[in-house]
Specification:
- This protein is mainly alpha-helical.
- Helix 1 crosses helix 13.
- The longest helix has about 30 residues.
C-alpha cells in the first residue's frame, strides 16, 4: 500500500536513540554535578573540576542533617506527602467517578469549573486560602500541609478520564446484584483503575514533597516546617556556608522522589498511557 507507514531506516533509529540519550544526559548532568560536589571538601567545591581530587568526603551529609536538623524536617515532609498521596487518591477518584459515571443537572458546567481551577496558580489566591486556613485552625500543623491538597483540578480530571474507560456494563451488573454507588466505586471502579491511581500517587507525592510556597506561608515554627523550606534556608546560608553541605542537603531531598518513581515506574507509565487514550 502506498499509504502504509514505512519502517524507519537503521540510521534514523540510531539517530533517534542517540537523541534520546543526549536529552537524558543533559537532564541528568545537574544531578550528577550536585552529588559529586557534595562529596568534595570545602576547598575543592568551586575549583571547576568534576571529580574530587582526593578521597570522597561523605561527612557533608552528616553535617547537613546535624546543622539544619534535616531529620525532623524530613519526617514532617514524609508524613505530609504520605497523607496527601493516600487521601488525594481517594477524593480525586471519588470526584472523577461522579463526573464520569453519574448524570445530574449542571455536570458539564461544574466539570468546566473544575478544569478552570488548573489555570490559577497558588500565588493568585493564597491570601484567601490563608484566611480560610487560619479560621479553621490550619496554621503551623500537619493539617495545613495536607487538607488544601486533598483534591485538585488536575487530579479530578485525570481520574475522570481513567474512570470513563470502565465499562458501564460492569456497573449495571453490580447494580443488579444490589450494590450501591459507593459499593460500585470501592469494589468495581477502584480495582479497575489501579494503574491510574498509581500514576496519580506519584504526581501527588512529588507535588507535596516539592511544595515550597504554601509551607513557607502557613508554617512559622521549626516543628512544622517542611524539608523544602529547610533546604532553602540552608542554601541561603542560614545554617552553614559550605557548598558541599548545601549540595548534600539537596541530594537528600531528591532521593525520596527517585525512590518513589522507581517503585511505581511501570504502573506510572501504564496509568499515564491508559488515561491518555480516553476520549
Amino acid at each position: 500500500m502506498s499509504g502504509a507507514l514505512r519502517r524507519p531506516s537503521a540510521g534514523a533509529r540510531a539517530a533517534a536513540v542517540a537523541g534520546v540519550y543526549l536529552v537524558a544526559l543533559s537532564m541528568a548532568a545537574p544531578f550528577v554535578w550536585m552529588i559529586l560536589t557534595s562529596l568534595k571538601p570545602d576547598g575543592e567545591a568551586l575549583n571547576g573540576r568534576l571529580l574530587p581530587e582526593g578521597a570522597w568526603h561523605w561527612g557533608s551529609y552528616a553535617e547537613a542533617v546535624r546543622s539544619a536538623r534535616l531529620d525532623r524536617f524530613f519526617t514532617t515532609s514524609l508524613l505530609a506527602a504520605g497523607l496527601t498521596t493516600v487521601l488525594a487518591g481517594f477524593f480525586n477518584a471519588l470526584a472523577g467517578y461522579v463526573f464520569a459515571k453519574m448524570r445530574f443537572a449542571g455536570r458539564t458546567p461544574a466539570f468546566g469549573a473544575v478544569i478552570a481551577t488548573m489555570l490559577l496558580p497558588m500565588q493568585v489566591f493564597f491570601i484567601f486560602a490563608y484566611l480560610i486556613a487560619a479560621r479553621l485552625g490550619f496554621i503551623d500543623n500537619i493539617q495545613a500541609l495536607v487538607v488544601p491538597f486533598l483534591a485538585s483540578g488536575f487530579g479530578i480530571f485525570y481520574m475522570r478520564q481513567a474512570i470513563a474507560g470502565v465499562p458501564d456494563s460492569l456497573l449495571e451488573a453490580g447494580r443488579l446484584d444490589g450494590m450501591g454507588d459507593l459499593d460500585l466505586f470501592w469494589s468495581v471502579v477502584m480495582p479497575s483503575v489501579r494503574p491510574a491511581l498509581a500514576a496519580l500517587a506519584v504526581f501527588s507525592f512529588v507535588n507535596s514533597w516539592n511544595n515550597f510556597f504554601w509551607p513557607l506561608v502557613v508554617c512559622d515554627r521549626d516543628e512544622s516546617k517542611t524539608l523544602t523550606v529547610a533546604v532553602a534556608e540552608l542554601a541561603a546560608g542560614i545554617y552553614v556556608q559550605s557548598w558541599p553541605v548545601r549540595m548534600a542537603a539537596a541530594t537528600i531531598i531528591t532521593l525520596p522522589l527517585l525512590g518513589v518513581f522507581l517503585c511505581f515506574q511501570r504502573a506510572f507509565v501504564q496509568g499515564v498511557a491508559a488515561s491518555g487514550l480516553k476520549e
